[in-house]
């Protein structure tokens, strides 16, 4: 296991491939969360605009009870938007930390494999010199 340079090359290539795959997944995850954030803002903006229109119509009809109900709905939508944004930020932080941890583990594995490869190369040289 430790002395096979072919295995070390193969293992190192696998670690490199895992690292590239992890980086790609992290970029995709970040893009998805960014899209989710944008969609939330757009949805909330449309709902707020619609409620604002309804509120103005009710105010024009001098329906203060209905207008205040629309204002309460607007506040609720803003609170929900803030909660969703906080959740997305929390997920981004979790994904970022997990990505960094996996990246560090893969880099450590790469270094271990490089050291094993160097050791096997030295052992081969010593064996050749002794032989």
UniProtKB/TrEMBL annotation:
Xref: InterPro entries: CEP350/CC187 (IPR028750)
A GO cellular component entry from the record: centrosome
GO molecular function, a single term: microtubule binding
Gene Ontology process terms (BP): microtubule anchoring
Descriptive protein name: Centrosome-associated protein 350
């Amino acid at each position: 296991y430790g002395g096979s340079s072919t295995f070390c090359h193969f293992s190192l290539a696998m670690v490199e491939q895992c690292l590239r795959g992890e980086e790609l997944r992290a970029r995709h995850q970040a893009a998805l969360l960014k899209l989710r954030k944008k969609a939330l803002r757009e949805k909330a903006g449309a709902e707020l605009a619609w409620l604002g229109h309804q509120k103005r119509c009710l105010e024009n009809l001098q329906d203060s009870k209905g207008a205040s109900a629309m204002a309460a709905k607007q506040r609720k939508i803003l609170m929900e938007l803030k909660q969703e944004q906080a959740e997305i930020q929390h997920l981004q932080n979790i994904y970022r930390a997990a990505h960094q941890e996996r990246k560090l583990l893969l880099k450590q594995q790469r270094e271990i494999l490089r050291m094993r490869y160097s050791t096997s190369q030295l052992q081969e040289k010593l064996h050749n010199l002794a032989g």
